[in-house]
Design goal:
heterodimer; A: alpha+beta; two-stranded parallel sheet; 10 helices; 6 strands
């Protein structure tokens, strides 16, 4: 009889709620650290949001970085950064946003091409003007805010407002800590990073919903069980699913991190962190917070709910 | 719950078969597709510019210039109107979105008001006590003007790009004053950018030979003349040759009907032909000014200033400058396509070379394959036979996802591949939810059939809740996002939809079929 690999044994009876104060402290510390990192160190904004020029050039033979650097510095284009990546003939050139509006950006690209001369092929050229970059930034933030609000409204409709509040706190917790990670590692923050943040939000809420569904079910089933035990029971019952799903998602993301190429690396790191912290927060933040909101009376007044599932 | 009616089974299988059929074109080459009979689907997944290489250019139409042109024209009209009516005026000029003029004699204000009011139906005239009149262009007229300029620009850009032979360009309006140009598969965006960026306004002017060159070069050209830069490749380095040119336009490029690159005395030139009106005017100008220099001005630069040796009456001529062959070709192309109504600026550019695009596809494919294999192996390790069922459902899921994308013409980008990889990771979630419920029920002592039945029905609400929340996020990402965010949102949203379908129906069909065949006493889970 095949029993299958178990990441966690069945019928765990871990007393998650007993450690909730410690976990709240950890979470709080992480949030404060993230905000501080964001405030002090700030994010390494990519050209999507900051404006500027990014060029991926391929030289014939290994690139002579110092030679290229001095050629470019003579152009007085402001801050220029050169970096080898992948192969030794691939050079990533970043130039800060040029003063003088939109046309100045294009002029700078032309000057750069002239300075580097022939024999260099341009694999990628991205130029984002000052106007577009600020629009992209606000659009990205708008998408982020809209998604969070919509998710919370959905939870609020499907569950009770208490669940909605806990879910949104957990979600904001995950997003802030992910932003903290971006600041800490100096990962480039661009449009793809916004997509990563939103997916973290989606994944985190997905995880939370699974636990909450079980909590709701148990609230109806065990009307007299103390809330703390009931939450422990619900988390334990869903623990096997939570770890399995997180594990498969992590496997997929690790593949993306190692094989997906340079462009998606930052995205994969953020997502991997998001899955870890999203799993943590659905148990230790979202569920534990339910302790403090009076969810017990929901089950009482909700005697014959339409969505009640069959229970033995 | 576990009963699967025959027609449902047929439907599920039909959907899978259809998905396979719709996905199939992606496996074929372009030539093979063309050889297929027409009733077969031929749509392939569209690859984003980041994967196939190409250029994405966002252009801003300088609409202020259009309005400014119109106001300048209004100034000219007002000047001639007032002169004809012998009304004395001062301080005539553009003031914001209006033209202002002060009438010198208060007795003539009424007459002037009458005259100017009749000039332009799009303007509103206001007068104050000391004889100052303002003709304000209405906001509606400004908007119409700007909108027409954007439409016209799109048309001109299309003509210019079509002539270069770029395949399947996308040229569309974005917002009030922007144009998005996408050029797939392009390896040298510089030339196209140069072509698009030129206004290509060509005019013929007489060179002002009465001007004192030294005086003019110091910024004091005679009234009615201006100093323009002269493009001359033979000039010594560092020298910036300039020419004093009369402002009056003798003939304009609008009258051109054709322009072709050709050779004259071994050098590349552009030969052109005027329409009837232009040809007549060109004939008049050249007849009256034999021996003088005629300046050909393109976008504020003199490209050539030949001497008029004899009247040119046939309505055609050549522009000889110090061109290279490519320059002559591009100039002819620009003149044929016509001038832009307003200058354009590239405000966003994203170009990817075809080589890098191919690298990205390879990396994405590798990541997808490795990720899928890891997930597949892991599922079998965890659930044995049921893991195999989940993997079968996962395969159907990916097939459905790719079929949907092919049929709807959705664009696959690099972040989109990341979305697929993530879908692979999360797609098994619904199955895991079901299987965990089944395990739980089986442990509680239920018979296999009843455990499976309960497992599916109990997991249902959770599956719907969990996936719908992610789907909401995906849709909002698509609506508000741009670029990579959108590409990611597309695959994520499709992935969730197909996941819900496969988890609920395909997995169930597989499990039920297996249950009927084997009638197990104990569940291998």
């Amino acid at each position: 009889m095949f029993r299958g690999l178990r990441l966690v044994p069945p019928d765990t009876k871990i007393r998650f709620m007993a450690m909730h104060k410690v976990n709240f402290a950890i979470s709080l510390a992480m949030i404060v650290a993230s905000i501080l990192l964001f405030a002090v160190k700030g994010l390494n904004y990519g050209i999507d949001f900051k404006g500027g020029i990014l060029i991926e050039a391929r030289t014939q033979g290994p690139a002579d970085l110092s030679h290229m650097r001095s050629a470019l510095e003579n152009l007085e284009l402001g801050e220029v950064s050169l970096q080898n990546f992948g192969r030794d003939d691939d050079v990533l050139i970043r130039i800060e946003k040029q003063e003088g509006g939109e046309a100045a950006q294009q002029a700078a690209v032309a000057k750069l091409r002239e300075a580097l001369g022939p024999g260099v092929s341009y694999e990628r050229t991205e130029v984002v003007g000052p106007q577009v970059s600020s629009e992209l930034f606000w659009q990205g933030m708008l998408a982020l805010a809209a998604a969070i609000v919509a998710i919370v409204i959905y939870i609020w409709f499907r569950f009770e407002w208490q669940f909605g509040i806990c879910a949104v706190i957990a979600e904001v917790h995950d997003i802030i800590s992910a932003i903290g990670l971006f600041a800490l590692l100096g990962l480039e923050f661009n449009l793809t990073s916004v997509a990563a943040l939103l997916t973290i939000a989606g994944y985190s809420i997905n995880d939370t919903v699974v636990v909450f569904d079980r909590v709701r079910e148990n609230l109806r089933k065990y009307k007299t069980m103390p809330l703390r035990d009931l939450l422990d029971l619900s988390v334990n019952q869903t623990l096997s699913r939570t770890t399995l799903t997180s594990a498969t998602a992590l496997l997929a993301l690790l593949a993306l991190y190692f094989f997906g190429g340079e462009v998606l690396r930052g995205f994969s790191i953020a997502m991997i962190w998001g899955i870890v912290v999203g799993t943590y927060s659905s148990i230790f933040v979202a569920s534990a917070l339910l302790l403090y909101l009076n969810v017990r009376h929901i089950a009482a007044k909700d005697e014959v709910p339409a969505t009640q599932t069959q229970t033995p | 719950m576990l009963h699967f009616s025959r027609w449902k089974t047929v439907m599920v299988l039909a959907v899978c078969g259809l998905a396979a059929l719709l996905f199939a074109p992606n496996l074929l080459s372009r030539d093979q597709l063309e050889a297929l009979p027409s009733w077969l689907p031929t749509r392939q997944i569209t690859l984003g510019l980041d994967l196939q290489g190409g250029s994405h250019l966002l252009l801003q139409v300088e609409t202020e210039a259009v309005v400014r042109d119109r106001l300048d024209a209004l100034v000219d009209t007002i000047r001639s109107t007032l002169r004809e009516s012998r009304i004395r005026y001062r301080e005539l000029g553009v003031d914001g979105q209006a033209v202002a003029v002060t009438i010198a004699d208060p007795a003539e204000v009424e007459e002037a008001t009458k005259q100017l009011r009749a000039l332009d139906p799009d303007t509103a005239l206001t007068a104050d006590d000391d004889g100052r009149l303002r003709l304000e262009l209405s906001d509606k007229a400004v908007r119409e003007r700007e909108s027409a300029a954007v439409d016209q620009s799109i048309e001109i850009i299309r003509r210019r790009i079509d002539e270069t032979g770029v395949r399947e360009p996308t040229i569309q309006r974005q917002g009030a004053s922007r144009i998005l140009v996408q050029l797939p598969g392009l390896d040298d965006p510089q030339r196209i950018k140069a072509l698009i960026g030129k206004t290509a306004k060509m005019t013929f002017h007489l060179v002002d030979d009465t001007a004192d060159p030294a005086e003019a070069m110091n910024g004091r050209p005679p009234p009615g003349s201006e100093v323009l830069p002269l493009i001359d490749r033979r000039a010594p380095a560092g020298a910036e040759p300039r020419l004093v040119v009369r402002k009056r336009v003798m003939v304009s490029g609008e009258n051109l009907v054709d322009a072709e690159p050709s050779f004259s005395q071994g050098a590349p030139v552009v030969s052109f032909r005027f329409d009837a009106a232009g040809g007549k005017r060109f004939g008049d100008v050249t007849s009256h000014n034999v021996g003088k220099q005629l300046a050909i001005v393109l976008d504020g630069q003199v490209i050539s200033a030949p001497n008029i040796r004899e009247p040119i009456l046939g309505g055609s001529g050549i522009i000889s400058g110090s061109f290279t062959v490519a320059e002559a070709q591009d100039l002819a192309l620009l003149l044929r396509a016509g001038a832009l109504p307003a200058p354009l600026e590239v405000i966003e550019e994203r170009s990817v070379g075809p080589g890098l695009g191919a690298d990205s596809i390879a990396a994405g494919k590798l990541a997808s394959i490795v990720g899928t294999v890891a997930v597949v192996v892991f599922m079998v390790l965890c659930y044995g036979l049921f893991g195999l069922f989940a993997n079968l459902a996962l395969a159907v899921n990916i097939l459905l996802l790719l079929a949907c994308m092919s049929v709807l013409g959705a664009t696959l980008t690099l972040p989109g591949i990341a979305g697929i990889v993530l879908t692979v990771g999360m797609a098994v979630d619904s199955n895991v939810l079901i299987f965990e419920h089944i395990r739980e029920e089986a442990r509680a002592g239920r018979t296999p059939i009843s455990a499976i039945d309960a497992g599916f029905s109990r997991a249902m609400t959770t599956i719907i809740d969990a996936n719908l929340t992610t789907l909401i996020a995906g849709c909002l990402l698509y609506i508000f996002g741009s670029g990579p965010v959108r590409g990611f949102a597309v695959t994520l949203s499709f992935g969730i939809l197909t996941t819900m379908f496969t988890a609920v129906t395909v997995t169930r069909l597989i499990v039920v079929t297996w249950l009927r065949r084997t009638r197990p006493q104990l569940l291998p889970i």
